[in-house]
Amino acid sequence: MSRNPITIEVLETLDAIERRGSFAKAAEELNKATSAVSYAVQKLEEQLDISLFQRQGRRSVLTPAGRLVLAEGREILQTTTRLANKAKEVATGWEPRLSIAVESLQPLDAFFNVMNEFLDEHPTIEIDVSECVLNGGWDALEQGNVDLIVGSPGPVPLQKGYRAVPIGSPDLVPVMSKMHKKIRDAVSKEKIYAALPELRRIITHDTSSVAVARSEGLSSDGRHFYVQNIDQKIEAIRAGIGIGHLPRHRILDELESGSFIELDLDHVTHVENYVAWKISHKGKGLQALTQKLTSQL
């Protein structure tokens, strides 16, 4: 049986070229000579009898065959990385890396203070923080994309083998920018309710790709303007595009200055938010981190 020409090293080379846009920049990242990178690609093309890259101006771009090799190859690279991490975890009990999804509404100052303390005690652990919205955190945890979620709203999915600790929920307030053309209707509860059918809602996308997407806050009736995260939602509301609920801790300055007006709408019932992880995850790093988070958040 002939040896497979597609090695981990050549996949890492293809990945670097595609991300950096040139053989020279990829060589710099890989700490190799440009000629060595070119030779690795040329050798693979000869062995597979296909072209992997083509020139477009000064950039090297993948051919359709090259895109296929790299797409499948990146999955292999991710698998080998997980394998190496798992092997180290089995040998030592400490994970080399922890992936954490933080709910978009979650106050970040307390979270990062905990992370700073944790890393002072465990400086060799690598942390990967991503953002999630609503069901997106539970989705990421179930799919194994993260080890831990922070601030995801309940209810906790049943029979998934999760350990979930409640941490309360942020104070969400309905607001309108002073730049909004209907700002005069914000003066009274009666006027704002009468104007609601004409007001566009700014909605943050639920990041779930498997579970049923959800939304919270204002009614979903009427016109919508979708954004990816709370930062975008704040700016969309600031520009006068529409109205929506925002966490009070994120807009204290705007409320104090009057650039955002809190609307007199009926209180929205908020569910409990959670720190959660899979019970089957026995890593010492996760155990140490969750103890800190649940005690300080």
Helix content: 40-55%
Report the sheet with the most strands, covering strand number, pairing sense and barrel closure: 5 strands, mixed
CA-based gyration radius: 24 Å
Can you tell me the CATH topology of the largest domain? D-Maltodextrin-Binding Protein, domain 2
Q: Strand fraction band? A: 15-25%
Q: What structural class do you assign from the helix and strand content?
A: alpha/beta
Strand order of the largest sheet: 4-3-5-12-6
Any overview of this molecule?
- With 297 residues, the protein is α/β, with parallel strands linked by helices.
- It folds into three domains: 8-89, Winged helix-like DNA-binding domain superfamily/Winged helix DNA-binding domain (Arc Repressor Mutant, subunit A, Orthogonal Bundle); 93-169 and 272-296, D-Maltodextrin-Binding Protein, domain 2 (3-Layer(aba) Sandwich); 172-262, D-Maltodextrin-Binding Protein, domain 2, CATH 3.40.190.
- Helix content is 41%, strand content 21%.
- The chain is built from ten helices and twelve strands.
- It has helices at 8-20, 23-30, 34-48, 64-92, 108-121, 136-142, 189-195, 230-238, 252-257, 284-296; strands at 53-56, 59-62, 97-103, 126-132, 148-153, 162-168, 172-177, 201-204, 224-227, 244-247, 260-262, 273-278.
- The strands form four sheets. It has a five-stranded mixed sheet with strand order 4-3-5-12-6, with helices on both faces.
- Strand 1 (53-56) and strand 2 form a beta hairpin.
- Helix 5 crosses helix 10 (284-296).
- The termini are far apart.
